[in-house]
Amino acid sequence: MHDGSIQHAARDTARILIAEDHLDSREALRILLESAGYDVAVVADGQAALDRALVDPPDLILLDVMMPHMDGLEVARRLRSAAPTRAVPIIAITAMHGARELALAAGVDHVMDKPIDIHSLLELVRDRLASEASR
Amino acid sequence: MNESGYFSSMVEPNAAPEAQATLPWPPPPGASAIDSFVRTWTESLFRPGEFFSKIPETGDTGAAVLYYGIIGMIAAVFGLFWNLVIAAAAASNPVVGQVAEALDLPTGALEPIVVFLFTPVILALLLAVVFAVIHVGLLIFGGARRGAGTTLRVLCYAYGPTVFAAIPYIGPLVGYIWMVVLAIVGLTSAHRTDGWRAALAVLLPLIGLFAIVIFLAMILAIAAVGMSS
């Protein structure tokens, strides 16, 4: 059960890339994750997400499935086939019916359905980053 | 007509009353106030050289300040409307709602309404500061060939484009750029001065303000980095 508070990330700040074309959602997620102590970068389309991640791989990617220029599924496929981003955890966010299986097949690690619950998202991000750090 | 003849015609004793009569605002006796207001707005925006050359040198500045106040309130109403629409749209986003609740962030209508209620005070302070800064600039650059009243009238009538706040996002930006252009054209025409003197008087304070904002933003950014490390 969540108590409504935002728990702070570990002091060794993890870097998260948010790829979301909807401005309000993008900014809300950025504020949320920054408030939780993460170092956050944001992009507004799939091509920008791919370019950014390949040049400067983050510790985790939050990827909207429906985006302009390149959808999240194609971004995930290309990230998985590139050496710098092959192991970067990807959490896909989607409102599309039936996108879960497609996203997992594209190489996404976790899929969250919209509307997302921010506490579940924070918990997933924290757990995933912790398991990556303990490897 | 040579230049000295042109300028000497501007100081003939009967020149000012004649020019005053040709301005559509304030409404002449018997004329529709709305019609006069719309004509003033249209002429000042789309024929600024002609319009501002008719600005009277002397007399009451009340009509010009009233025009400025009405324009300012119209722009504020449009601004309030779009701010409320944007706030409502943001609040209807489930992620925004959850984040705002978790972090205790304001997303409601209160903030835009409070800002709107202070609009008359903000407009008065803005006009006082802008008028003082620009008229001192005109004096420094030798552009104040007429009195301070002329500068005040020009700045009031140059405020017209701010009603482009009716168009969300891009409207206020277009309005402010147009307003700056009108202020330069208006001061040039009304003071019978060189364009570069008016431009310096208007643009230098803006550039200075921009530099101060950038400087303060850099200081804050450096302080934030220092606190987080």
Protein traits:
heterodimer, A: 135 residues, alpha/beta, five-stranded parallel β-sheet, 41% helix, globular, B: 229 residues, mainly alpha, 11 helices
Concise synopsis of the structure shown:
Chain A has 135 residues and is α/β, with parallel strands linked by helices.
Poorly predicted runs of 5 or more residues of chain B: 1-20
What is the average per-residue confidence, as pLDDT of chain B, rounded to a whole number? 85
Greatest contact between two chains = A-B, 18 and 13 residues
What's the SSE pattern of chain B?
A: HHHHHHHHHHH
Shape descriptor of chain A reads globular
Q: How far is it from the N-terminal to the C-terminal residue of chain A, by CA?
A: 28 Å
Sheet having the most strands of chain B: none
Question: How many strands in all of chain B?
Answer: 0
Q: Can you lay out the helices and strands and say which pair or pack?
A:
The complex is a heterodimer of chains A (135) and B (229).
Chain A: E1 15-19, H1 23-35, E2 39-43, H2 46-55, E3 60-64, H3 72-80, E4 90-94, H4 99-106, E5 110-113, H5 118-133
Parallel strand pairs in A: 1-2, 1-3, 3-4, 4-5
Helix pairs in contact in A: 2-3
Chain B: H1 3-10, H2 15-22, H3 33-46, H4 48-53, H5 62-92, H6 94-103, H7 110-117, H8 119-140, H9 148-157, H10 170-190, H11 195-228
Helix pairs in contact in B: 5-7, 5-8, 5-9, 8-9, 8-11, 9-10, 10-11
Protein architecture, described:
The complex is a heterodimer of chains A (135) and B (229). Chain A is α/β, with parallel strands linked by helices and 135 residues long. Chain A is 41% helix and 18% strand. Chain A is built from five helices and five strands, in the order βαβαβαβαβα. The longest helix of chain A has 16 residues. Chain A is globular. The mean pLDDT of chain A is 88. Chain B is mostly helical and 229 residues long. Chain B contains eleven helices and no strands. The radius of gyration of chain B is 21 Å and the shape is globular. Chains A and B meet through α1 of A and α6 of B.
